[in-house]
Amino acid sequence: MLHAAAWTDVDGAEAHEARARLVNVQGTRNVVALGAPIVYFSTDYVFDGTKREPYVESDEPNPLSAYGRTKLLGEREVREGWIVRSSWLFGWKGRNFVRTMLALAEQQDEVRVVADQRGSPTYVAHLAEATRDLLALPGGVWHLAAEGECTWAELAAAIFEEAGVDCRVTPITTEQLGRPALRPAYSVLRSEREGAPQLPHWREGLRECLARLAAAS
After folding, report:
1. In sequence order, what DSSP letters do the residues of the chain get, joined into one string?
2. Measuring CA to CA, which residue among 151, 171, 5, 174 is closest to residue 88?
3. Where do the structural domains in the chain lie, given as residue ranges?
4. Under 8 Å CB-to-CB from 111, ≥6 apart: which residues?
5. pLDDT tens digit string along 60-104?
6. What are phi and psi for residue 164, nearest 5 degrees?
7. Of the candidates 121, 126, 190, 208, which lies 20 to 30 Å from 94 by C-alpha distance?
8. What is the pLDDT of residue 1?
9. Count of Cβ atoms closer than 10 Å to residue 35 Cβ
10. Phi/psi of residue 199, each to 5°?
11. Tens-place pLDDT, residues 122-161
12. CATH of region 2-216
């Protein structure tokens, strides 16, 4: 059973942690109670970002935000199945960074984007393929994220370059952005487990996502 339902509003969880806990913890407990093995999708935000090399499964979580705390507590509800930590997800549907940047570029010729957070942007289609392969492997915690790493500002610049959009990216700091929830400054994920599925580079995922968006327009 794939359990992807979650409270994913990182900043909203700071003001409504009890509600986020109901979704991310109690909701997971309800799914587990059905008795079937599950795949629980978790997040890089269970880490505090103080490490400066990729986080692996044996690293101790230390979430900075209400969102990260509730997702970690959700992980601990899983008794049988796979806990999949991934990062910076984007796709051709729903609310995500790629679609947000493209929408902003239609309205303005400059965007201000954080340049002091680093992670591995992961295309949801590649994550889905890796999850399918994971089902043939033992359960437990697995890190599945795209190859490569970048900052949000670098990702924004890549989006505009690949999409052929004329929009300037101005790097800013996390402090300048002023969001309610703390984010890890470094949250690149890699797997130390034998046989872990390997995802393509994030830039390849970006190209595939943009092609899918173009085909749908």
Report:
1. -EE------HHHHHH-HHHHHIIIIIHHHHHHTT-S-EEEEEEGGGS-S--SS-B-TTSPP---SHHHHHHHHHHTT--SEEEEEE-SEE-SSSS-HHHHHHHHHTT-SEEEEE-S-EE--EEHHHHHHHHHHHTTS--EEEE---BS-EEHHHHHHHHHHHHT---EEEEE-HHHHT-SS---SB--B---STT---PPBHHHHHHHHHHHHHHH-
2. 151
3. 2-216
4. 101, 104, 105, 156, 167, 168, 169, 170
5. 999 999 999 999 999 999 999 999 999 999 999 999 999 999 999
6. 70, 35
7. 190
8. 86
9. 10
10. -90, 150
11. 999 999 999 999 999 999 999 999 999 999 999 999 999 9
12. 3.40.50.720
Q: What is the pTM of this model?
A: 0.96
Active site (annotated) includes residue 45: no
Query: For 157-215, what is each residue's pLDDT tens digit?
Result: 999 999 999 999 999 999 999 999 999 999 999 999 999 999 999 999 999 999 999 99
Q: Fill in the amino acid letter for 173.
A: T
40, 55, 67, 186: the catalytic one is: 67
CA angle at residue 182 from 144 to 79, to 5 degrees?
A: 45
User: Any idea how long the chain is?
Assistant: 217
